[in-house]
Amino acid sequence: MALKSFFRFVACFCGLYFSATSFVSAIPIVTIKGSKFFTTDGEQFYIKGITYQASTFDGNALTKSAQCEIDAQLIKELGANVIRVYSVDPTLNHDACMSSFEKRGIYLLLDMPTPFASISRNEPKWTTELRNLYAQVIDGFSKYDNLLGFFAGNEVVNDESNTGAAAYVRAVIADMKAYQNLQGHRKVPIGYSAANNANLRKLQQDYFNCGNEKSAADFFSSNVYSWCGTSDFVKSGYETLYREADGYSMPIFLSETGCLSNSSTLNSPFRDFADQRVLLGRDMNDRYSGNIMYEWSLGDNGYGIVSYSQASATGTPRKLGDYSRLKDMWATLTPAGVKSSHYDPTLTRRACPTSAKSWLVDPRATLPTVGLDGFATPTAPRYTSTQIRSTASESATSNTGGGQNEPAGVNSRSSETPAASSTDSKSGLSSAVIAGIVLGVLIGIGLILGVVLLFIHRRKRGKQESLAPGDDLHDPFSDKMPVAASDIPSGCYAELPNPTMQTNELAGQERSAELPVRSTTGGESISLASQAPEQSPDAQIPVPVEDSPYVQAQRKTEMQWLEEEENKLRQRRELLMKQTGRA
Hints:
Layout: H1 2-24, E1 30-33, E2 36-39, E3 44-45, E4 47-51, H2 65-78, E5 82-85, H3 95-102, E6 107-111, H4 128-141, E7 147-154, H5 166-183, E8 190-195, H6 201-209, E9 220-223, H7 238-244, E10 252-257, H8 275-279, E11 288-293, E12 306-307, E13 318-319, H9 321-331, H10 385-398, H11 418-423, H12 431-465, H13 549-579
Parallel strand pairs: 4-5, 4-11, 5-6, 6-7, 7-8, 8-9, 9-10, 10-11
Antiparallel strand pairs: 1-2, 2-3, 12-13
Helix pairs in contact: 1-12, 2-3, 3-10, 4-5
């Protein structure tokens, strides 16, 4: 019976081992291969997303831990696997909220710009101040395994007159990729979200894909609201979207979509989401990697799918009809795609668009990068979601109610960083360290017990072999029974999968010729000039271009804010004039 007990112990140990490893393992990281997203376990990843931020200047996104727990569960039940957040305050702690979404299998696409810190389309500038702010966002979020990617800009170009601003967005990508390398961060994909201008969309796709990989976008997306009401694949322009996405060496998806039909009203929006059958179905899912629906919470523009009773968007929201309709639609759409191991792309980068009246970027000019002067290479190791999960759970426990915010680095359990935990013995051990200790103890006990039982088993077998043929092999003084080889369990001895993470590479057997790239330190720039022959953009019928609902709402809020500030200044001026007797 000793060997049976031993093997029962082994089975128990294997169960504990796999339970512990599943506890410390992180969500699969999403990487890029060719024109597709893949998880590190080799599955193609399709975006079913929702924008998760009110159309206001809320810098506290992803900091209200109690609210994130509520919303993350509802977003999971919706069937979404991605949220898009338009701006964050990188000085605050986001561990608890990111953990809430991670444990429900939800990834984040994050805009680096904010309403007050972004590339202006009419007077574009890329400065060291902007660079430092964007670098803070990268520092604050690269540690999260459920971070899918960064947006370097949103609808910066929306008209032929401001196409020159595209070079500044590409400079952002170049400097931020260089910063990732300098700091030893995971190579989180950096891409662009374009306005839906039919005359410029293809030009922008080519521009952000062409030239040197160090400044090219890792993915390209558009904000498209052309499928309205009872539209279809052709009338909506989706057929053109599909045709124009052929052969790119980067993933393409819709970063905003979800047109309100004429039957929609502010208090009762109605969308049937028929476009999802096309985007996630066979019509488009071989070239498009999904889409992000606009938007989560109901605002003045009427696009939300849930409604909060509180102006602060806290508490459990009421599900609107669009929530149920989108949930039901997504439940029927589960594209499998292709396995990463079966996908061997031979894609090349596009030729850069030539300078013309409709495209003001000279492909031979250098990018207006600012370089990495002032940044130092870190000496401490970088941390990921696995190592911060225990900190996040503590933060979620202590931060309840409306969700108070604390700047990262404050000496409290809710804002404690992994680096602080490793240097302060009073801070406690991370879940990964604790699990490692438990596994080490279990392995040690298993080895010791195995040696003892094996020794006893061999002594018993020696006695059995000394008996004459036909003698009873059972020792009346022992409860130990011989164990046949077929009774030995083998399932726990299977080779474990290699957990090595892959980094983001736009791989392909064929690559376009790489042009010389000057160092990104010291403010030098990167050349985009392509050796491919010049080509003129396809002639298209001009169509009126309208900013996306988010940009419109953002502009409205900005105007309200400016009016309030002007009123304050006017009142202050009148008061000063009275005090000086000049009234």
